[in-house]
Design goal:
By secondary structure, the chain is mostly beta strands. Helix content is 7%, strand content 46%. It has helices at residues 258-261, 276-293, and strands at residues 25-29, 33-38, 43-54, 59-65, 76-80, 92-94, 98-106, 110-118, 124-133, 139-149, 163-169, 174-179, 187-189, 196-200, 204-210, 217-224, 227-233, 237-239, 244-255.
Length: 295
Amino acid sequence: QSEGRSAASVPSLAASDSEYSSADDVLFKNDKLRLLFNLKGSAIREISFLEYTDIEKKGPLKLISAQKISAGSLSLGMIYPALERESRTGQVSMDQDRVTLQSAVLNADVKVTKNYVFRRSGYSADLSVTFENISGKPLNIQYELFAGSSIPARHSIDAQYIEANFFSSGINKSDLRHINESKLGKRGESQGPLDWIAIKDRHFSVILKPKADKTFSGVVEGLGDQHFSAALVSPKVSLPVSGSVTHEFLVYMGPNDLGELLPLGLEDIVNFGKLDLVWKICIGALEMLHKIFKN
């Protein structure tokens, strides 16, 4: 555990150039993930996969290693009230199943507590974010929760596959939007509530899914130099004096593998276009044969 540091905040953290300090890092590992949480915003600064090897660096494959807050996963930015924030990180406790980080006090008005719960095995986690009104007056809030910034390309061919996704499902139709808007200051917004939002490349994804009924929209913001950030946008929430509200999310950080995604209901991120159903049946058959013959 280490002390949090003061940090200036703006309505959207995607516009912030504030940098992380490695002195504020907290390490978490299970059998598949190695994560560096950072006490500045209780976000995930680095994501590595223990079962995948970076051939050049001879170590676990590192998907994201953010230096700036704008690139961190699961950082939170207040849209309203659009006030400066003083970061006062409190206790950090963790064991093999659970990581709990208590994060910022927003302008002495709102206390925000993030609670991450991980399994001993797997690529997913449950995230709850609680907002408590400590201002002494009724308060309206709205916020963005960032899936993260665009995943850095590991090879020259990767750039064409790096994108954000908006996914929404209906009674008769599902819609998966592919977005890679990177022009500085340019924003792309969803046309309605979403099931989930993601950033991904050819092989891996970071997916953020609200657990409640669809009330969150999505936004992708260009950061310039072929980079973008993607976030869920909350509905406006009214908090009475001393009132609180908790929002819960499923977080997935892992391979675009149907065997991992199907049990979580996230298989739609793997899409083969017009032959989507045929290819998914073929992949399922190959995975079954692999389990039988180990080859």
